[in-house]
Specification:
159 residues
C-alpha cells in the first residue's frame, strides 16, 4: 500500500507543470529552504541557516497549518501563533511583509474553499449555510455576510 504522503506529492507534482517560470522558481526556493531547515534541525545546526531561509520556511509552515485547519472556527491569529511558538505580533509582521493580514488571508482561503464546494455538482444538495459552516463561517455575522462574500470575485473588495 502506498504512503498517503507519496500520493499527495504525486498529485501536487502533476500540477507543477501548470506553474509559470516565476512560480516554479519561488516554489523551488521555498522547498530548498524547508529542506535546509529540516536538515539543520536534525543535525542540531539550526543557527547556521540564514534568517531569510528560516523565515520563508516558517511562513510556509504557517500557511500549511492554516490550510489544514480552515474548517476550525477557532482558527485565529492567537491559535496560529501559539501552534508555531511565535508571538502574534511576529505573525502579523510576517503577513504584513506579504501584503496580507492574518484574518484576511484566512477569510480568503475559506472563501476559496466555499466557492469550490458551491461549484461542485456533487455537493449541490448541500445548503449554502452548511458549506459556510464547514469552512469556519459559524458566527451569526459571518453567516449573514457569507452569501454576498462567496459570490464576490476574490480580488474585489467588499462594498
Amino acid at each position: 500500500m502506498r504512503d498517503r504522503r507519496a500520493d499527495a506529492l504525486s498529485r501536487r507534482t502533476a500540477s507543477y507543470a501548470k506553474l509559470s517560470d516565476a512560480e516554479t522558481s519561488r516554489l523551488s526556493t521555498l522547498i530548498l529552504d524547508v529542506l535546509t531547515l529540516a536538515l539543520a534541525d536534525a543535525l542540531d545546526t539550526e543557527g547556521l541557516v540564514p534568517p531569510h531561509a528560516r523565515q520563508r520556511a516558517l511562513t510556509a509552515r504557517i500557511h500549511a497549518s492554516i490550510h489544514d485547519n480552515l474548517g476550525d472556527p477557532g482558527l485565529t491569529p492567537g491559535t496560529i501563533a501559539a501552534a508555531q511558538h511565535i508571538s502574534r505580533s511576529y505573525l502579523y509582521t510576517l503577513f504584513h511583509r506579504q501584503g496580507h493580514t492574518v484574518a484576511g488571508y484566512i477569510r480568503e482561503r475559506r472563501l476559496e474553499r466555499c466557492r469550490r464546494d458551491l461549484a461542485d455538482p456533487l455537493l449541490a444538495a448541500h445548503p449554502i449555510h452548511a458549506t459556510a459552516a464547514r469552512w469556519g463561517f459559524t458566527s451569526p455575522a459571518a453567516r449573514e455576510q457569507f452569501p454576498d462574500a462567496a459570490r464576490r470575485p476574490a480580488h474585489q473588495a467588499p462594498p
